[in-house]
Amino acid sequence: MSGHDHSHSHAGAPGESHQGRIAVALGITLAVFVVQIIGSFLTGSLALLFDSAHVLTDAGGLAMALLAARLMTRPATSRRTWGFARAEVLAATAQAAVLLAVGLVVLVEGVQRLFNPTEIASNEMIIFGAIGLLGNIVSMFVLMGGRSKNFNMRAAFLEVVNDALGSVAVIVAAIVISTTGWMQADAIVAMLIGALILPRTVKLLLETVHVLLESTPSGLDLDKVRVHILELDHVISVHDLHASQIATGLPILSAHVVVDDECFHDGHVPQLLDSLQNCVAGHFEISVEHSTFQLETAAHAEHEHGAHH
Fold it and tell me: In this predicted model, what pLDDT tens digit does every residue of 155-213 receive, in sequence order?
């Protein structure tokens, strides 16, 4: 016998997609890109050029985030039983992968320019850097309210934060060049932009890949879950215990639970099923509201195929 929770307010409901916020941030980011790419050619700044490439990459990431946000609002169907809830994870993974590549390219190119510096129009560089920073700050405020809602919004906010850091770095490089004439500051700042991208990007990439591999959600200890289930009355053993995460805030769990034979004759099964679901929904750091349990007699194991765990 199996059971599941009947509350289906999946992550990715319309109120959680934040399409408007992402669309505004995307528009601002594209405008910043146009301004900065013009500025990079006028000033000859590597840092500004790489920051422009970074901004364009982020615009692509925000476009993916917007598409994912729209897909997340689509209802579940018999073919896609969770709808497009996982679209936010796929989009965030793609954004993180692209950002990682950009960061590595910036580091390599920055090292090369460090030994072959060129003349930089530092005053104009300050102006274009300031314009980019202003746009980034506006985008950050737009996205700030929803940045912790799901992977997709975290990735989008991260894109904009990285842009803002890049703009600050460009301005600092321009000031150093203007006051000291040390052209290598441009290359050093370019490498700094790459270094700022990598740690946060790697963290996000690992988290999203963790979800795509259907690993146990962080914060949910299945050994403790098993022990807690075994403490319930009439439960003999637990096997085929699995847990994964569909999307942000949507963990799922399934298990085969061997119970006393008498439970199937005295009408105790419905009460036991409620106890199991309440157990995984309310006793752990991660609340699993979508759970499926197969209740079995001890003799049923003889009819199952494959190893149990």
Answer: 778 778 877 877 887 888 888 888 888 888 878 877 877 777 778 778 888 988 988 98
Q: What is the pLDDT of residues 19-37, one digit of tens each?
A: 788 888 889 889 888 888 8
Q: How far is CA 10 from the centre of its chain?
A: 17
- Cα–Cα distances (Å) from 295 to 236, 256, 260, 268, 302, in that order, read 11, 6, 10, 12, 15
Confidence of residue 294 (pLDDT cuts 50, 70, 90): very high
Under 8 Å between Cβ of 260 and 232: no
Q: Copy the structure tokens of residue 127.
A: 């102006």
CB 46 within 8 A of CB 110: yes
CA distances (Å), 122 to each of 175, 220, 265, in order?
7, 52, 84
Q: 3-state DSSP call for residue 85?
A: coil
DSSP bridge pairs for 242: 254
Single pTM value for the model: 0.67
| Distance from C-alpha of 113 to C-alpha of 183, rounded to nearest angstrom | 10
Cα–Cα distance measured from residue 203 to residue 52, given in angstroms and rounded to the nearest whole number: 24
Please answer whether residues 254 and 293 qualify as being in contact, where contact means their C-beta atoms are separated by less than 8 angstroms: yes
Number of H helices, E strands in the chain: 8, 3
Burial of 178 (C-beta count, 10 Å sphere; 0-12/13-18/19+): middle
* CA separation for the pair 96, 223 (Å, rounded): 31
Cβ contact 245:179 at 8 Å: no
For 121-132, write each residue's pLDDT tens digit: 777 778 888 888
Query: What are residue 258's phi and psi, to 5 degrees?
Result: -85, 125
